[in-house]
Amino acid sequence: MSTPNSKALPVNAAARMHENRLNPVTEPRAVRWLLTGIALVFLALFLVVPLVAVFVQAFAKGIDYYFESLKDPDAWSAIKLTLMTAAIAVPLNVVFGLAASWAIAKFEFRGKALLTTLIDLPFSVSPVISGLIYVLMFGAQGWFGPWLAAHDVQIIFAVPGIVLATIFVTFPFVARELIPLMQAQGNDEEEAAHVLGASGWQIFRRVTLPNVKWGLLYGVILCNARAMGEFGAVSVVSGHIRGQTDTMPLHVEILYNEYNFSAAFAVASLLALLALVTLALKLLAERRMSQVVSEAKATAQH
């Protein structure tokens, strides 16, 4: 003979299972608050406090000294070199990223897996090692060193070496953002444009490029931030010639080693401002890109 409780138990269990599916966060409120608090404390200690310290130290001697530090000829030379390096490296990486991602996502060809692997190479190699590779190739005792010296061409310890090293460490960023986006969008629109008689360039300019513009912007933002903030590879190939081959990160190191802390933090504050602007643009691009990916997946399912 059954009792009322024997029938209620399965119903209650089913109700709890249904509630768990609707609300997967089943931890007690105290646990959730504890985890959130730990995350906030970690962010405050390792992100907010150092960022605030940079600006506090930068203005420690007053706003006049801050701007005087930035107007210093060596500092201004480092700023210009950093901007010039980024202005060269980022567009070249955009061209490479668009070409590589379009080929990988839209076509099948022999060596596709190898190309995809090579794109990730700078992520697996230390920037210092990549800078050393350029020294071994283009340095005075390198593979091409004697030929370059005979033709009065200097790459290492000069601007060309800085640009080459920066291009190497930053070239995966644009491609790595565009490849999954193009793969999610599929080839339907391109095939339809081809059937209607559009040429390859017209398909790329009017179909592919508008569909990936937010992913492209996201990759450009990350690429530019890394180009301006790169230290390891540039440090190896620059030679640390003050006022000539020092970028902003290298100039910060020099000033700090000379115990000129306020000037060092003044230049570092520009890199910190770049990081903050990058985060804001990155957030905007992420939202737009996630929306584009969702729409692409919804279109593919239908």
TrEMBL record:
An example Gene Ontology molecular-function term: ABC-type sulfate transporter activity
Matching Pfam families: BPD_transp_1
UniProt topology in membrane: Multi-pass membrane protein
A GO CC annotation given for this chain: plasma membrane
Entry's transmembrane regions: 33-59, 79-105, 117-143, 155-175, 215-241, 261-281
Top-level lineage group: Bacteria
Cellular compartment(s): Cell inner membrane
Protein name from the UniProt record: Sulfate transport system permease protein CysW
Gene that this sequence comes from: cysW
